[in-house]
Predict the 3D structure of the following.
Amino acid sequence: MDRGHQERHQDGHRENSTSGMTNRELPEDVAAARAAIAGAERVVVLTGAGISTDSGIPDFRGPNGVWTKNPAAEKASNIEYYLADPEVRAAAWQSRLASPAWTATPNVGHRAIVELERRGSLHGVVTQNIDGLHQLAGNDPDKVIEVHGTVWFTRCWDCDDRRPMSEALDRVRAGERDPACMVCGGIVKSDTISFGQQLVPQVIDRAMAVSDECDVMLAVGSTLSVFPAANCVPLAKASGAEVIIVNAEPTAMDHHADWLLRGDIGAILPALVETGLNPD
Ligand SMILES: [Zn+2]
């Protein structure tokens, strides 16, 4: 390894022979973003569907998206249709039984975020995903702010009773088409935010609070076009945070980015936190 060449980089002072990959081997913007993360005390990671596609969780609106291929699924995710029509609910329960979320496993992108927590610099994960993969990867559930809810729990529309999804799925497997609330007999759905449904104010408030407090905002796998989650980025920026955006496609917040890293999340995230790399 010819370390002399590292001096050409402005961030050469960040070079660190104990890390797996030296800055010389990284694209310059990745190396600079990595240095920002390494120097941060409070990193907030905002994640969208793009971080979970490598785990086999399809996104919703892409070419292979759930709604692109099956418009009926979009109907089931609209709260008005869901509440009004037992047939929509029956179809939704069958769809939940077959969800890829039950067998999906976290990927290197999720594990890179766990590494940030292990180092003590993770202030929070704000996720638009409902798959629970951050917690499954090993992030402290208290650190994960699920702005669109989770498929791992159910909630009663009437009495708010919340319990593990597995209980309802067992009832569906046993023959119930539309399992009613065990407490009040009301309509049960997954504890996710459907279209037409209000977000949970306390959850959104927490997402905004951690974004306001961070010194690095790392947005991963989101088009940053769904609000209010996308507002975390300009909020962090306005509070003085450095903004790193990692996504395969352009996002609605690219103009806020200090570092725009366009490419494969599974390659870039580990490079940003120095995991999965062999010592040289
Ligand atoms: Zn109930």
Notes: The CA atoms of residues 162 and 230 lie 27 Å apart. Residues 201-213 form the longest helix (13 residues). The first strand starts at residue 43 and ends at 47. The chain is about 35% helix and 15% strand.
